């Protein structure tokens, strides 16, 4: 494999004459960005600006919008339910970013390094497919099935607890306001784990196996190898996964909608549900546009922090 | 390695080529067929439902009466039409005739925006208005503000719906409890069930069922003008009046007494219905939309009756046939509506488990369907259709679900419940 | 206990965990082959009495499921490939080209994902009507290519940021221009990551429902997720059919994953290149 790459590079250069080196211009890399920038401007930036424009109006989606200036934003600032729902977002971040990333890391290392080595890559691939499967199921259907599993009477979970003698642990998993949020978090972990797992396992392909061999020869156990070799090598993937899952957690809506509809009594309400219901159930498109603009700005600010941290870490690596 | 790359390349080329090819012929067929040769018809009732069967028959009859006219029927999803109707009606893709939800928030809103054709002339010409009772007519007419009850005709319903109490007679017999005929007997029966360790009422706290119990309890202490104030904004609605207070306190009381399971805060309507069919819940209070399903799937002896002790109950005319303003073949649309309002189709609808608005009662053969329709006729005659609690304000459904859940878990007292609901109602209802 | 025996508990633990992940699928499968009456009478968590496939046949004909599957494959496949290409181009410039203002450029692309989809609905509806692409599959392909490419750009540029410069330098010295370096060196080495992108993009686009619901009106253009929505009525839902249709709908995505899973493992360890 190594020979092919070098041969490829040499073959490419074979027909060029070895003249004086052209000064390398960083800017010509920017040309590669052209299709991306054009596409994104047309599909994202323009609609975003249109959306922001609509947020200054009162509009039902049809007919002509009525200009109302900052009225929507003022109403949003006073909307205590909206801001209270951000508290639930924090729980979602734990369930959708923190836990899956950590678990995904350990699982990826276990499947790649341990199972792959001792039992063959087939086992690793099969197990990975099993862990990824929840990501393939449409969330609407997953929600229905989980509501059956978590049903208070005759739900699988309560039946299982009864069967193993833990009957006293039975709960109204989705109907008890004190527990509903944790139940939703549990389902979110189930949904999300496959995503970091697949990303990390692909990233682990990049790690030079000689590093592992050398470490094993030096007597490093699995955990030491994980901490000192695996983690630093796939640092970019870890950043990407954490950032992406955090954005997803702040935007999460589908799973919550299907499981609890934000209930019971608002115990699992999330900011995105406000946005969605305002757009489509209340058809207050102007107000909905304001909500989504504020949401986007908040997510943008947080992502910029993550991105800056990531680039700084990468710069640090290079020095 | 080259073969792998070539494989990817060919797959890519095939997909791109294929997609461009298919997208070019998958687009909307814009400005064709304004020549009265096609009828573009949409609805979202399942093919096995009473409406689905009746309307399929109507399509056949339409084709027979209009040789040379092609009927382009597309079954849509309810969710898609609800979310995208304004967008579709504003484009060139609009159908000639479509089923749409009744109410101020839906048909009313569309009529206000000028997206629906005014049907008043056709209605009087063809005599559809004579066939519909007053309660059903309310949801077919909308004024300039999009409020139902008065104004021009914008939709024509073929069927109606109402709520009723479903009883599992076998369970009643098993526990030796008499079937209730009055409200007091109902309460007594529920108490008896609780003593035997059975939760009497099936409920769905996460969806519409819980709020419908509460509304019905309030209705039992209300009258027509009360409903007019609430649904048609004909006066100020006070949630602390006798009816609402009775509804909220009794509902909370029933949860405490165990008539409604406290563990039903998170259940869906589907689960409640299944628990009835399974024979777990002896009583279910919900709508006629369950009737056909119970007829096919419930293997025990069951019956239905109107809510005892109340002149009013939830219900309304069914979903409407609307003709978009931009429809190209309006006359064909009117002909189709006419066929669906004919005795033949209406009787078929009645015999398949639906509630027709203009059928021949003698032509209904199935005894259970007879009961269903006669109960509705009785209700309709005494002007007892009180619509639904979430109709007056957009987004009210979510508020009612959430607040009723809080009432069930006990985190809110009836007073607080009524305050919260009042606030949401005042915020969204048009100023009188 | 020898080292070999000590390994088995790990495998067994992982297998049990994997089983828990898969249990909901089994519930879907079990309900997919139940008759509606059976499901209502015995509840969703009971085992079926024999296989009931009539519902599935009816549904297939009712919504022309074959056409929906074709639409979904076409749209998801196109998006996967196009978005991967777009991501490669963007990530090359950002990760290897190290252009100025990288953080801001990245944020620009990731913005595509920060915007809640409902905010895009009305603008995209109006824009697509203006260019005559309303109710076409092409509009959905274009929109999702951009949305998915956000993640692709982000992941790939982060990974390429770690790409060893020496190989690029060596190729440049040998006279290769930027385009050739990209396709002859960078892409083959990044195959596992690009494989991840292809799989993710396909599956994410496959399960998208809001924008296809809004943009695809004619039944001929609709995707599997929109067709599933037909089963959710105003007040009633068809549970067994939903499960059956969902299972059918999931199969192509699963097949796609299994086929491309091999690219996830057939990469080149960059270190070995040295």
Please render the helix and strand layout as text.
The complex is a heterotrimer of chains A (319), B (432) and C (274).
Chain A: H1 2-14, H2 34-54, E1 57-58, E2 66-67, H3 71-78, H4 80-119, H5 121-136, H6 139-149, H7 156-163, H8 180-192, H9 194-204, H10 209-217, H11 222-233, H12 235-251, H13 254-259, H14 271-281, H15 285-318
Antiparallel strand pairs in A: 1-2
Helix pairs in contact in A: 2-15, 3-15, 4-5, 4-8, 4-9, 4-11, 4-12, 5-9, 12-15, 14-15
Chain B: H1 2-25, E1 38-43, H2 50-65, E2 70-75, H3 78-89, E3 97-100, H4 104-112, H5 120-126, H6 128-131, H7 134-138, E4 141-142, E5 152-153, E6 156-157, E7 160-168, H8 169-174, H9 183-195, E8 201-202, H10 208-219, H11 224-232, H12 242-257, H13 269-277, E9 283-287, H14 291-297, E10 302-305, E11 315-317, E12 320-322, H15 330-340, H16 343-351, H17 367-381, H18 396-409, H19 414-428
Parallel strand pairs in B: 1-2, 1-3, 8-9
Antiparallel strand pairs in B: 3-12, 4-5, 6-12, 7-9, 7-10, 7-11
Helix pairs in contact in B: 2-15, 2-16, 10-12, 12-19, 18-19
Chain C: H1 3-32, H2 36-42, H3 54-62, H4 65-96, H5 102-114, H6 117-130, H7 137-160, H8 165-173, H9 178-189, H10 191-206, H11 210-215, H12 224-229, H13 239-265, H14 270-273
Helix pairs in contact in C: 1-13, 3-13, 4-7, 4-10, 5-7, 7-10, 8-9, 10-13
Q: Can you offer a commentary on this structure?
A:
- The complex is a heterotrimer of chains A (319), B (432) and C (274).
- Chain A is an all-alpha fold.
- Chain A has a domain at 90-268: MetI-like fold (Orthogonal Bundle).
- Helices cover 72% and strands 1% of the residues of chain A.
- Mean pLDDT of chain A is 86; it is low at 1-23.
- Chain B has 432 residues and is α/β, with parallel strands linked by helices.
- In chain B, helix 2 crosses helix 15 and helix 2 packs antiparallel against helix 16.
- In chain B, 55% of the residues are buried.
- Chain C has 14 helices and no strands.
- Chain C has helices at 3-32, 36-42, 54-62, 65-96, 102-114, 117-130, 137-160, 165-173, 178-189, 191-206, 210-215, 224-229, 239-265, 270-273.
- Chains in contact: A-B, A-C, B-C.
- Chains A and C meet through helix 1, helix 2, helix 4, helix 5 and helix 6 of A and helix 1, helix 4, helix 5, helix 6 and helix 7 of C.
């Amino acid at each position: 494999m190594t020979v092919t790459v070098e041969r490829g590079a040499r073959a490419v250069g074979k027909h060029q004459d070895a003249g004086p080196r052209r000064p390398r211009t960083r800017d010509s890399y920017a040309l590669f960005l052209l299709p991306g920038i054009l596409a994104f401007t047309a599909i994202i930036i323009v609609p975003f600006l249109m959306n922001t424009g609509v947020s200054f109006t009162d509009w039902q989606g049809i007919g002509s919008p009525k200009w109302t200036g900052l009225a929507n934003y003022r109403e949003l600032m006073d909307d205590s339910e909206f801001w209270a729902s951000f508290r639930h977002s924090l729980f979602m971040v734990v369930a959708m970013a923190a836990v899956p990333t950590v678990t995904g890391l350990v699982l990826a290392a276990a499947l790649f390094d341990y199972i792959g080595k001792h039992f063959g890559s087939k086992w690793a691939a099969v197990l990975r497919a099993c862990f990824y499967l929840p990501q393939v199921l449409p969330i609407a259907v997953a929600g229905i099935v989980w509501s059956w599993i978590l049903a208070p009477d005759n739900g699988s979970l309560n039946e299982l607890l009864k069967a193993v003698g833990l009957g006293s642990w039975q709960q109204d998993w989705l109907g008890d306001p004190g527990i509903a949020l944790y139940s939703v978090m549990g389902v979110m972990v189930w949904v999300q784990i496959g995503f970091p797992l697949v990303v990390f396992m692909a990233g682990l392909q990049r790690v030079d196996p000689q590093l592992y061999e050398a470490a094993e020869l030096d007597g490093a156990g699995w955990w030491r190898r994980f901490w000192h070799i695996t983690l630093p090598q796939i640092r970019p993937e870890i950043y990407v996964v954490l950032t992406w899952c955090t954005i997803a957690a702040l935007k999460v809506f589908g799973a919550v909608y299907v499981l609890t509809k934000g209930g019971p009594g608002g115990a699992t309400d999330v900011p995105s549900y406000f946005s969605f219901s305002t757009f489509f159930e209340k058809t207050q498109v102007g107000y909905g546009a304001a909500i989504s603009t504020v949401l986007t700005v908040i997510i943008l600010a947080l992502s910029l922090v993550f991105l800056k941290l990531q680039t700084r870490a990468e710069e640090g690596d290079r020095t | 390695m080259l073969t792998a790359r070539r494989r990817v390349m060919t797959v890519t080329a095939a997909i791109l080529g294929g997609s461009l090819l298919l997208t070019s012929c998958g687009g909307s067929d814009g400005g064709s067929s304004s020549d009265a040769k096609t009828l573009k018809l949409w609805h979202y009732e399942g093919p096995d439902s009473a409406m689905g069967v009746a309307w399929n028959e109507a399509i056949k009859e339409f084709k027979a009466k209009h040789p040379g006219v092609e009927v382009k029927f597309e079954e849509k999803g309810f969710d898609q039409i609800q979310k995208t109707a304004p967008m579709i009606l504003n484009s060139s893709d609009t159908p000639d005739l479509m089923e749409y939800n009744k109410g101020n928030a839906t048909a009313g809103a569309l009529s206000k925006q000028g997206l629906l054709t005014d049907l008043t002339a056709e209605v009087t010409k063809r005599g559809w208005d004579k066939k519909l009772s007053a309660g059903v007519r309310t949801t077919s007419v909308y004024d300039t503000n999009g409020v139902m009850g008065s104004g021009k005709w914008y939709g024509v319903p073929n069927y109606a719906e109402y709520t009723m109490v479903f009883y599992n007679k076998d369970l009643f017999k098993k526990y030796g409890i008499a079937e209730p005929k009055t409200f007091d007997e109902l309460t007594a029966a529920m108490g008896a069930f609780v003593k035997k360790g059975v939760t009497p009422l099936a409920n769905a706290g996460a969806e519409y069922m819980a709020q419908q119990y509460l509304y019905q309890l309030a209705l039992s202490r209300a009258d027509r003008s009360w409903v007019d104030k609430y649904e048609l904004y004909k006066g100020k609605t006070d949630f602390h009046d006798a009816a609402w207070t009775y509804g909220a306190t009794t509902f909370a009381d029933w949860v405490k007494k165990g008539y409604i399971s406290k563990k039903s805060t998170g259940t869906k309507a589907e689960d409640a219905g299944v628990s009835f069919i399974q024979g777990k819940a002896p009583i279910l209070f919900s709508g006629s939309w369950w009737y056909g399903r119970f007829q096919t799937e419930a293997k025990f002896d069951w019956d239905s009756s109107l809510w005892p002790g109340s002149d009013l109950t939830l219900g309304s005319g069914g979903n409407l046939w609307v003709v978009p303003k931009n429809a190209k073949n309006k006359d064909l649309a009117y002909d189709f509506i006419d066929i669906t309002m004919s005795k033949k189709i209406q009787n078929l609808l009645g015999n398949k488990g639906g509630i027709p608005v203009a059928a021949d009662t003698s032509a209904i053969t199935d005894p259970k369907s007879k009961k269903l329709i006669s109960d509705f006729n009785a209700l309709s005659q005494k002007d007892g259709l009180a619509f639904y609690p979430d109709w007056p304000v957009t987004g009210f459904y979510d508020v009612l679900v959430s607040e009723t859940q809080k009432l069930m878990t006990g985190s809110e007292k009836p007073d607080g419940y009524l305050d919260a609901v009042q606030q949401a109602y005042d915020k969204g209802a048009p100023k009188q | 206990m020898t080292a070999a025996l000590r390994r088995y508990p790990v495998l067994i633990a992982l297998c049990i965990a994997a089983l828990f992940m898969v249990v909901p699928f089994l519930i879907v499968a079990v309900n997919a082959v139940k008759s509606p009456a059976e499901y209502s009478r015995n509840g969703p968590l009971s085992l079926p009495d024999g296989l009931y496939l009539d519902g599935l046949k009816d549904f297939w004909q009712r919504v022309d499921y074959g056409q929906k599957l074709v639409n979904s494959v076409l749209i998801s496949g196109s998006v996967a490939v196009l978005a991967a290409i777009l991501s490669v181009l963007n990530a090359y410039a950002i990760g290897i080209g190290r252009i100025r203002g990288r953080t801001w450029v990245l944020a620009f692309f990731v913005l595509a994902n920060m915007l809640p989809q409902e905010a895009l609905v009305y603008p995209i509806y109006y824009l697509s009507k203006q260019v005559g692409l309303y109710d076409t599959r092409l509009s959905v392909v274009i929109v999702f290519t951009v949305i998915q490419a956000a993640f692709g750009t982000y992941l790939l540029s982060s990974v390429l940021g770690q790409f060893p410069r020496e190989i690029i330098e060596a190729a440049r010295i040998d006279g290769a221009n930027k385009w050739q370096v990209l396709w002859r060196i960078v892409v083959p080495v990044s195959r596992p990551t690009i494989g991840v992108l292809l799989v993710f993009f396909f599956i994410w686009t496959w399960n998208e429902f809001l924008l296809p619901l809004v943009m695809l009106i004619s039944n001929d253009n609709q995707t599997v997720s929109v067709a599933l929505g037909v089963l959710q009525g105003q007040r009633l839902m068809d549970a067994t059919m939903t499960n059956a249709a969902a299972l059918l709908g999931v199969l192509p995505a699963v097949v796609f994953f299994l086929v491309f899973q091999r690219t996830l493992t057939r990469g080149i360890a960059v270190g070995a290149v040295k």
